[in-house]
Hints:
mainly beta
Amino acid sequence: MKSLLFGLLTFTLSIVTTSANPKGKDEIAKSPFGKLPDGKTAHLYTLKNASGMTVKLTDYGATTVSIIVPDRDGHYADVAFGYDSASGYVNGKSYFGATVGRYANRIGGGEFRLDGRVYHLPLNDGPNTLHGGTIGFNKVLWKATAAETAEGPSVTFTYVSPDGEDGFPGTVKATVVYTLLNDNGLRITYRATTDKPTVLNLTNHTYFNLSGNPGKTILGEDLMLDADNYTPVDKNLIPTGKIAPVVNTPMDFRRLTKIGARIGEDNGQLRYCRGYDLNWVLNGFTGKVRKAAEVYDPESGRVLDVYTDQPGIQFYTGNFLDGTEIGKGGVHYNHRTALTLEAQLYPDSPNKPQFPSSVLRPGQTYRQETIYKFRVKKN
Ligand code: BGC
């Protein structure tokens, strides 16, 4: 009886997790991803598009787990960092692949003033609040609905963040939709509403290593950021409030430039950040989606183009990875072996009235669209 039950169970699971997936057809599969501390089960959604690109997502943190794309010879590899099961994400400290909220990046001093009232947030980064605080949108289970759409397989995640969660005012209803487009773009659209005035800044925190080899640093990859300016920071990585030109600094990525070319230069900003960990002020901010960044790995030929409607992008070179995070397949993730390109409002906007506003009021809808699109260059 037991073995019959087991047989039935594995049969059912194999239908959902490993059903035949010939190239040329979109597909979505759902499988268990492990138990959470409260006894609930997290799930893994595997999306495959007609050309064979595969993206795995989990409802824990509305997170990207894997992004599997071809190199110039057609060999597929996973270019995103993550863990083998939900417990990795529960214990993880690096926000691999996560949806970050309520406020991506830092709020200086862990407080902000809105409509004359001061709100205090948990400090989880020295004197600051980082990526939403101690709970954060990355450490909660989202509701998920998978769908085949005309544009490709898609998963919609929703989460209702209660009034006062992590110190932020208002009940926030957030939706994040991932769609794996047939042109190898992973489109992420965000929507959120609130029932009290609040601040909000969502982003995706995927760590990319385009070589597909998580043991290799990203210093040999080339980067382009369509930004004439960036927001310099103080020693606590809080923007000073100035908008500074990138010209004649190691922050100038207006043309494809090797990430490692200037990372070791004697520069105050690079010293504070221990590498790159800054917000670039993207050119052409009108609220419309435009190309903001490009990463190219000369060895594999893989290219990542980033499109977004956001005013800023945080480029971070994994400076705080130190080998203690153990990821997929038992790999130790080391210093500078991945990069993030987090489309967002500027850090600490709630305390910087001169920056684009992060205030969300009842009746308004927060919106964002960002696309991570993959292709190859022949040589
Ligand atoms: C921040 C880094 C931080 C990393 C992981 C990035 O968005 O800019 O300073 O270490 O996230 O939390």
